[in-house]
Write a structure and sequence with these properties.
- The protein has 3 domains: about 15-370, Thiamin diphosphate (ThDP)-binding fold, Pyr/PP domains (Rossmann fold), CATH 3.40.50; about 405-600, Thiamin diphosphate (ThDP)-binding fold, Pyr/PP domains (Rossmann fold), CATH 3.40.50; about 615-740, Rossmann fold (3-Layer(aba) Sandwich), CATH 3.40.50.
- Helix content is about 35%, strand content about 15%.
- With about 750 residues, the protein is α/β, with parallel strands linked by helices.
- The protein is built from 25 helices and 23 strands.
- It starts with about 40 loop residues before the first helix and ends with a helix.
- α5 (about 130-135) crosses α13, α14 (about 410-425) runs parallel beside α20 and α21 crosses α25.
- The longest helix has 26 residues, at about 55-80.
- The structure holds thiamine diphosphate and magnesium ion (MG).
- Magnesium ion (MG) binds near residues 208, 209, 210, 240 and 241.
Length: about 750
Amino acid sequence: MAVLVTGSDGAGPDLESAGSCSVDIWQPSGSVAGETSNDNAQRGARRGKYRGVPVAELLEDYRLALVSRCTDDREIILQKQSRGFFHISGAGHEALGLGLARSLRPGYDWFFPYYRDRSLVLALGVTPAEMLLQAVGAANDPASGGRQMPCHFGDRRFNIVTQSSPTGSQCIPAVGCAEAGRYISGHGEKGLAGCTAQADELTYVSLGEGATSQGEFWESLNTACTLRLPVLYVVADNGYAISVPVRQQAPAPISELVKGFAGLSVHRIDGRDYFEVRKKAPAIVASVREGLGPALVHATVTRPYSHSCADTQSKYRPKHELDDEIWHDPISTLERAILEAKVLSPEELAQMREEARSLVADAAKVALDAPRPDPSGVREHLRAAPVAAPQVSSPVPGEEAEHDAPVVALGEAIRLALHEAMARDTRVRLFGQDVADAPPELIDELVGQGGVFGTTLGLQRNFGHDRCYNTPLAEANIVGRAVGQGIRGLRPMPEIQFFDYIWTAMQQIKSEAATVRWRSAGEWSCPLVLRVAIGGYLAGGAIWHSQSGVSIFAHVPGLIVVMPSRASDAVGLLRTALDGEDPVLFLEHKHLLRQRYTEDRFPAPGFRVPFGKGRIARPGGDLTIVTYGATVERSLRAASRSGASVEVIDLRSIMPWDQGMVAASVARTGHLLVVSEDNLTCGFGAEIAAWAGEHCFGDLDVPVSRIGAADTNVAYEPTLERATLPQVEDIEAGIWRLLSS
Ligand SMILES: Cc1ncc(C[n+]2csc(CCOP(=O)(O)OP(=O)(O)O)c2C)c(N)n1
Ligand SMILES: [Mg+2]
């Protein structure tokens, strides 16, 4: 029978077996093993097909399966030698990946692989050397520049999208990618700047049976089916999510659980059997390509090695189960078939294994000789390098406006800026809950919704349903689809209706959007502008319509965070965000949307507000207030009432923020009061105060002081809300406390 040489705990080969590929030759009883390569039957078999598969392809895929397994084995050895730092294998999944790859098109279709997709990725064109460069963390690891764990694939040449680690989070960006492909190819010959797509492309996304428990998987299926998108889901079911068996994971196999999804074609296959995958994959892939809707392949695979190098599966899997997997190992199964078909002799099989081993050994030498990353570059690729010197806005809001431009408050300024953005760039698409006007067939009869705050009113009417559309009530779905579209070069503008409900999208914001550029060492980018209504001072908003929490997002490397407090700044920041190549969190304070004091003349087209540039909202010489959002106007009122010479800085941009402006002001005033609507403890004001304490100490006459919300939740009853959020009198008292100390 077939014998896998693994460590005694099933964790992979021992160091002693470093010289051989871990798949041992299968020695069947009977005569086949004894036959020679000159055997006539064998020569005949090599020319034709075996079980419907051209023998040349069979042999090439067998070779790749061996290369895949040998690469796993080599990574395990490197890790045990402390020359690699992690290992997770594709062992047991080889036949599935190779069989599917025969129906897929690298550089044409789009790929969101799982970490067990080594064989698929090899078949798409990535080399073992490139994989091992990642395993050792080399500077020239093409997938991540030494930033990501092994088997976190990414290769622009083949449309293999940079991979993150959260299980399941790839599913929604994959749907966004498919959505983008349809939109881009719909623009035909004219095309869209920087975007390419094929009319019959598909998006491949794979995951384990464990990862199907994630909500993001289900949210993605919802949209893939509703829009009948060309998405091929592959669930590689090896029976375990680390140590959790599938029976503890879900009430039924995934192919049964998804049966209620209208429009999803579901297929159960034995992914251990290369020939079965080859037989079934072409029709499944063709149906997705033809636009018949998404398909889900539920494939049985094995996991001969432990989950990863940090796991010992013999601790939680019975021996008989592991033995059974050895028998069903996809490579052993393939070898039995090859011998049965007399395509190769046992000696030739052995020779192929040796060739695979030696090829991977050479690749390992390349990887080990490669230079390591320069530690000084660890902050590179968090954001795009600025393409041009940022244009500095006028210090007087609205000064650059044309004279006949309307005078508008913050909300209307945003609405007009959105119309302008969509008119200027067809890559801009806006979507979220309630953002559209009305169902397309009724739009001529109705006024239209245009968002619960009216900020997107008229966008669907003016630019069409494929530019401004409603999404399911699912925040991760909204942001994740934007991630997939941004990756394809579009300029998505997802909207989160209330900041209070942003949390289910946090994974897509923090782990996906914000890391795409960094984790791919600048190979991929994710431009998107995430508009979010935020903040309190509403009277009646209560806890879930009044939240702040800017500091949580300012803490996310790679994310730009802005919050304008007046109309011209909103327009200037929105334009800058759309000019850029990075994810931007654009916070629209609900209380400010219709306030007269936010009004400006709508700025002329060239007006931009650069990121990281504050605005002196009120000059003064005795004390500096640094603030943003709804507390700007409250600080201005407090400053007037105090009678003191108070300078008020409106940061506008929270990450990055204008440290230079704050330092220069403090150098003049010697007093700093930081005011913000965030809770006091760990609010963004704490960051400003800490920075000023460190960098402006010599200029400060007294310690920095902070005013923030009362470290509780905003309650419904108005006097309770007042007691929670900073009020004008609190700020005025804060001014005098500082000036008199
Ligand atoms: C969101 C998230 N939670 C936990 C983990 C840690 N983790 C990594 S792989 C894994 C198990 C995944 O199981 P499955 O999807 O069945 O894939 P398999 O490893 O079996 O191929 C877990 C829990 C993670 N990466 N992401
Ligand atoms: Mg699994």
